[in-house]
Amino acid sequence: MDRLIEAIRAKKNPTVAGLDPKLAYIPQFIRSAAYEQFGKTLEGAAEAILQFNMGLIDALAPIVPAVKPQCAYYEQYGWQGMRTLDATIRYAQQKGLYVILDGKRNDIGTTMEAYAKAHLGTTEVEGQQLPVFDGDALTVNPYLGTDGIKPLLPICTERDKSIFVLVKTSNPSSGELQDKVFADGKTLYASVGSLCESWGAQTRGQFGYSRVGAVVGATYPAQLGELRKALPHTFFLVPGYGAQGGGAKDVAPAFDERGLGAVINASRSILTAWQKTGADEKDFAKAAAAEAVRMRDDIVSEIGGIQ
């Protein structure tokens, strides 16, 4: 997690741009060029997404410390889409960006080890260890308990990676399960948060945060504040800013006294900025960069800077 925090401090920006592309978000000139080359096929769609992503990354790299591709947006285009995901990860990392893979994976034993190898580690082929998607962090679901998290931890340590565990998600129905209260008086989300502290206890870095982070939504600011106090060593990935309704005041409780402790995600508001502002479609990346700057300034002004 130190690498992400160092990037946040260097750019004075605690935000991450979500790369969750839909074809409707992509300018027509990009789609037309891709379809001319590959037809209106899965391969054509995947090429359009890649060109869109590369344009966004070029514009965003000087501003944001990280990007977060959501795997489902690529999986829906088959192996062609997954090839675009791979190319997007590599291009972002070449530009110095930290890449959080939003896959929400979960299983146990060797199956979870396989997910860990695919997204964060290496896979053995005839005695050679080869990196696969090789993201810097992965979102994971804790529903299976420690058995679903433990297989990830050695790979995180060996390859300098991190995970973000779903704790209190931003969606409206999250409370149906996450707000349930146990006999000890703790909610499910608070209990999972406590597990994050213990899972990451041996991996705390120079800023005091471990390799085991938590996903906590901007749409629940009271819970953000509660969990920030309860989980001093757990770094937060905070979705829900922007299109889902969260604002700077809502995310402020996620931060510690140094202006650290969280990275705030926005996806749709950045990807569609060119459409919302009425910009020329060829200025899509410029519009995305302007929205990323606005978001950064909005949040930093609320939390009082980053130390």
Automatic annotation (TrEMBL):
MF-aspect GO terms: orotidine-5'-phosphate decarboxylase activity
Family matches, as InterPro entries: Aldolase_TIM (IPR013785), OMPdecase_AS (IPR018089), OMPdecase_type-2 (IPR011995), OMPdeCOase_dom (IPR001754), RibuloseP-bd_barrel (IPR011060)
Metabolic or biological pathway: Pyrimidine metabolism; UMP biosynthesis via de novo pathway; UMP from orotate: step 2/2
Top enzyme category: lyase
Keywords: Decarboxylase, Lyase, Pyrimidine biosynthesis
Signal peptide residue numbers: none
Active site: K104 (proton donor)
EC number per UniProt: 4.1.1.23
Catalytic reactions on record: orotidine 5'-phosphate + H(+) = UMP + CO2
PROSITE patterns: OMPDECASE
GO biological process: 'de novo' pyrimidine nucleobase biosynthetic process; 'de novo' UMP biosynthetic process
Domain Orotidine 5'-phosphate decarboxylase: 14-288
NCBIfam families cross-referenced by the UniProt entry: pyrF_sub2
PANTHER family from the UniProt entry: OROTIDINE 5'-PHOSPHATE DECARBOXYLASE
Family: Belongs to the OMP decarboxylase family. Type 2 subfamily.
Stated name of the protein: Orotidine 5'-phosphate decarboxylase
Species per Swiss-Prot/TrEMBL record: Caproicibacterium amylolyticum
